[in-house]
Design a protein that fits this description.
12 helices; alpha/beta; about 30% helix; TIM Barrel; single chain
Length: about 350
């Protein structure tokens, strides 16, 4: 990495009301380590505190409201026990000098009745995820056809996100990230491959984006928009997602998000499965006037060059941060990285979670 790129990657960044000491961010990573009742625990606090050297930690996808589990052991933020559990994490991260925001989330059609007391999942349209299965207490099961949300039910969804934002504040987070990516509820409304409804929340892009904008407004009424981020994945086909015009969607969305004065926009730049290709970052950068965080498949060299070149303002790292609690220092000093173990990404306990070592010279 050139000196210019390294200096850019390790320069401070102001994201609305949030101050980051460097631009090596930790992406949200589902790890399925919560305790019964979707309650965060001391092991999670240890994991996040180990990674407090990130410019900003975005904590994992967290259920904004009860009854919308997609991962069995993911955390929530709708109960007093969950607020107290997350307080362990925020206190630990802050004590280690870090900054952390909570990604608030609704699983939409990616939920399953076996994870939610038999409740049918909800979605913009009754279209099931195909080609994959969900992990349940009864083993791997196919996704089910979701129930189409009625327009009259949508205010309850918005209210759930607002309550989650208030609970995240009570838990001591520095802000929140609204999860509108990867084929979960808000993304399902946004992209026309999953949203086939008519009325105020379907059809043209203005209507499909309406729910995201209403959630942003509700969450911002709790935090102020300068402590609210948004994550999108216009190209990602995960969870059977597709859009007929991802570049046009990205361009339109980037321009209209300027109205909200968010802390940042967090963009997954590609597709896990390479079914959709294209450059969404360039039109987003050209049209969005706020802080832009990019994610997905960056090496440290590419990240440094992208920040130094002004193409993005920061880069969020996923699996490399999972395996390297001291990732910023390793990047800065050009040190070798630990190799992540996919077999322990979602298993319980400390193995493959808090036992990755920091760098020690031989």
């Amino acid at each position: 990495m050139s000196h210019e790129a390294r200096d850019a990657l390790f320069s401070p960044l102001q994201l609305g009301a949030l101050s980051a000491p460097n631009r090596v961010f930790m992406a949200p990573l589902t790890r399925c380590r919560a305790s019964a009742g979707h309650v965060p625990n001391p092991l999670m606090a240890e994991y996040y505190a180990q990674r407090a050297g990130a410019g900003l930690i975005v904590a994992e996808a967290t259920m904004a409201m009860e009854g919308n589990s997609s991962f069995w052991m993911e955390p929530g933020i709708y109960s007093s026990a969950q607020i107290a559990g997350w307080k362990l994490t925020t206190d630990a991260v802050h004590a280690a000098g870090g900054r952390i925001v909570l990604q608030i989330w609704h699983g939409g059609r990616a939920c399953h009745p076996l994870l939610n007391d038999g409740a049918q999942p909800v979605a913009p349209s009754p279209i099931a995820i195909t080609g994959d299965e969900v992990n349940t207490p009864q083993g791997e099961k196919p996704y089910v056809i979701p129930r189409e949300l009625g327009d009259e039910e949508i205010p309850k969804i918005i209210a759930g996100f607002k309550a989650a934002a208030a609970n995240a504040k009570a838990a001591g987070f520095d802000g929140v990230e609204v999860h509108a990516a990867n084929g979960y509820l808000l993304d399902e409304f946004l992209r026309n491959g999953s949203n086939r409804r008519t009325g105020p929340y379907g059809g043209n892009v203005e209507n499909r984006a309406r729910l995201i904008f209403e959630v942003i407004e509700a969450v911002s009424s709790v935090w102020g928009s300068n402590r609210v981020g948004l994550r999108i994945s216009p190209l990602n086909s995960y969870n059977s997602m597709i859009d007929s015009d991802p570049i046009g969607l990205s361009t339109w969305l980037a321009s209209h998000l300027n109205d909200f004065q968010l802390a940042y926009l967090h963009v997954m730049r590609g597709d896990f499965f390479q079914q959709q290709r294209g450059d969404v970052l360039t039109p987003i950068r050209e049209n969005y006037r706020g802080i832009l965080i990019a994610n997905m498949g960056y090496t440290s060299d590419e990240a440094g060059a992208a920040v130094a070149g002004g193409r993005v303002d920061a880069v969020a790292f996923g699996t490399s941060f999972l395996a390297n609690p001291d990732l910023p220092q390793r990047i800065r000093s050009a040190l070798p990285l630990n190799t992540p173990n996919p077999a322990t990404f979602y298993t319980p306990g400390s193995e493959g979670y808090t036992d990755y070592p920091t760098y020690r010279p031989a």
